[in-house]
Design brief:
Oligomer: single chain
CATH superfamily: Aldolase class I
Number of strands: 13
Bound molecules: flavin mononucleotide
CATH topology: TIM Barrel
Helix content: 40-55%
CATH class: Alpha Beta
CATH architecture: Alpha-Beta Barrel
Strand order of the largest sheet: 3-4-7-8-9-10-12-13
């Protein structure tokens, strides 16, 4: 299906294509969800696993940023993801950066974006999810909410900004993510510094209603910075680390101005960060960055990730990719003779040189 639509969508500018797909899917509402659940069923039960005590249907989840406002929250589980992350949302609704702010590089299978957290605000997301849950919606998988700082909030008031957002969404989220790693909000990445991060983490935990809290890190931190952030996360009570966000490096990508690079060129660096954080960070890791195949997932798991996420590959390959990767992983688990996904993952790590 996506193979038929892609040439048309790729003739449109990326944001128009995004709006079109979201508009049609949202308009079709429950019908689209129901139809999708017939054609692309849930992951093979052999793939059931967990991260930081959170049971997921399969190891591949949707990364933050695609569905910032959760408008398709009811749709993603039926695409075949094992878990879904919504957001980034901020305390203040905001329009994001001027367009153009999203660029595709099909030959490199990469995206560059400087969206700048365009979103309706954490309160609106909370209300939307609450209304659906109260009406009986049960996603059957974890729904995470990723939180960022509002652009207009001064950096020295960041803690309060995250606290407000958390209070608006905690009751309807299964896990929360502190995003201090997007490159498109001035000063945001400075909040990865230990002192700043400690304050934000304490505030999110205070209002988080006991939901697991993850910290999402940038691939542009050096080893020392990464491990310092992990130390604060671990001692401060975070459940895990998400590694990584987009990079400000541009290996071989034409210049389109500032922004974060994602997709295939990010894969190597994300893998390195996952390996370091898993080995020395002392917390469970969700790996993300450049994943587009079962081999890529396997490499992330071998490097120490518990589960993984993707975004960019969905744009280049369409939603069919999710079922394809999960099916291939299920085949590998069964073929290995391992009784469970967790046993298979443990075997991958043990085999590593
Ligand atoms: C257009 C776009 C918008 C994104 N927005 C967010 C965001 O709002 N919050 C966030 O934590 N990550 C955001 N990301 C980063 C992704 O969640 C992910 O960490 C990164 O793209 C690497 O994964 P990928 O190579 O599979 O895309 C965004 C990525 C893209 C491409």
């Amino acid at each position: 299906m996506y193979a038929l639509l892609k040439p048309l969508l790729f003739r449109l500018d990326p944001e128009t294509a995004h709006r079109l797909v979201f508009g049609v899917t949202e308009g079709a509402g429950g019908l689209a969800g129901a139809a999708m659940s017939v054609v692309s069923s849930r992951p093979d039960p052999v793939l059931e696993t967990s991260v930081a005590g959170l049971a997921v249907r399969g190891p591949l989840g949707l990364a933050a940023g695609l569905d910032k406002n959760g408008s398709l929250a009811r749709f993603w589980p039926s695409v075949g993801f094992g878990f879904t992350e919504l957001g980034t949302v901020t305390a203040l609704p905001q329009p994001g950066n001027p367009k153009p702010r999203l660029f595709r590089f099909p030959a490199e299978r990469a995206l560059v974006n400087r969206m700048g957290f365009n979103n309706d605000g954490a309160e609106a997301l909370g209300e939307r999810l609450r209304a659906w849950r109260e009406a009986g919606w049960s996603p059957g998988q974890p729904i995470g909410v990723n939180l960022g700082k509002s652009k207009l909030t001064p950096l020295d008031e960041a803690v309060d900004d995250y606290r407000k957002s958390t209070a608006w969404v905690a009751d309807v989220a299964d896990y929360l993510v502190i995003n201090v790693s997007s490159p498109n909000t001035p000063g945001l990445r400075g909040l990865q510094d230990p002192e700043q991060l400690a304050g934000i983490l304490a505030a999110v935990l205070e209002k988080g209603e006991g939901k697991p809290v993850f910290v999402k890190l940038a691939p542009d931190l050096d080893d020392e910075g990464l491990l310092a952030a992990c130390e604060v996360a671990r001692t401060g009570g975070a459940a895990g680390i998400i590694a990584t966000n987009t990079t400000i490096e541009r290996p071989g990508i034409p210049d389109v101005g500032p922004g974060g690079l994602s997709g295939r060129p990010l894969r190597g660096r994300s893998l390195e960060v996952v390996r370091l954080v898993a080995e020395e960070g002392g917390l469970p890791v969700i790996g993300v960055g450049g994943i587009e195949s079962a081999d890529d997932v396997e490499a992330m798991l071998a490097a120490g990730a518990e589960v993984v996420q993707l975004y960019s590959a969905l744009i280049f390959n369409g939603p069919e990719l999710i079922g394809k990767i999960h099916n291939e992983l299920a085949r590998r688990v069964r073929e290995s003779g391992a009784a469970t996904f967790d046993d298979w993952r443990a075997g991958l790590r043990a085999e590593r040189p």
